[in-house]
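Predict the 3D structure for this chain.
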Amino acid sequence: MTIEQFNFAGKKAIVRVDFNVPLDEKGIVTDDTRIRGALPTLKKVLADGGALIMMSHMGKPKGKVKPELSLSQIVKNVSAVLGVDVKFAKDCGNADAEAKALKPGEALLLENLRYYPEEEGKPVGVEKGTPEYDEAKKEMKGRQKDFAKKLASYADCYVMDAFGTAHRKHASTAVIADYFDADHKMLGFLMEKEVKAVDAVLNNIQRPFTAIMGGSKVSTKIGIIENLLSKVDNLVLCGGMTYTFAKAQGGEIGKSICENDKLDIALDIIKKAKENNVNLVLGSDSIIADDFSNDANQKVCASNAIPEGWEGMDAGPETRKAFAEAIKGSKTILWNGPAGVFEFDNFTGGSKAIAEAVAAATKEGAFSLIGGGDSVACVNKFGLADQVSYISTGGGALLEAIEGKVLPGVAAIKGE
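Done. Predicted structure below.
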């Protein structure tokens, strides 16, 4: 069943959304992209004459109640964009009364799902790799099913619209689907769009195909980088992982971030790129600083000759040119992860150079897919969001989909 075909009139729909939005220290939402992304699905439920129950996680409370991660803080934001006064259920695992009282055209937001360890299905307070853990895990899987069944009991149909968590087999993203028949569970509009965008990158590649991978660690991106080496023409590696590569090749990196146990993997990636005739672009120079702060002293330096006490913070001027050169003329572009410590305004230049090059290539006809919270925040920060083809709401989910993995959140609906 697709959401387009389904009529929500007189039905209660429970929708898994991704409202894990960034908040400042006062609990004010600083970027509501994810809330706005869910609107087409949420509005369809209400416009049909259905009652809407929204559920989401926020942060990583790991099964404990943490007030600073309460979704009560965003009720006003959701109400404002949805155009109805959203009601709030203080306990997602005990919201029978609120769900029952809900009338057509009304909306309810449940409290943070991850206040319950059953949502993620991971045992709490037991050490991994022990017999106790295996026992606790088995017991937790049972409790996870009960928790999912409870969430399902609030509604007549289930909509999965949280691409950001679709790669996790959680109670609310996958297990809950077992309690609805095929005609009463579906992907939301956002999920459908995400799945199509990934498809466009993977199965309909227009060349040259350029992937830009940033972020601080090689380790979190190994799978995707190796997978991309067989697909791309150009691979730009930037951000903190630059220094793991520089050190692997015998460079001096000062106190820059580095994964010393991944040096051989970095060398292996360089070798595989050569074997696959991939143009691997690793920055040659960096903006370095004597402290990890926005106001630190900074200078330009070769990425493999950083003095003691200094650390790489952003791509240098030569590197920015090399990045822009690799992106220019591309027909398919994938970008995940910034090129520097972009949360410090003085170290956004590298990420900005990438964003501008991607926007220019898109204007020339490239399909550009931006994913991952930081890259999305970059594009928004530079006001270029409307100049790229597609902005994905999921980082990890996007990468796993591009690695070719089946996402549990999609499989649970399609019965794969």
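The CA atoms of residues 301 and 397 lie 35 Å apart.
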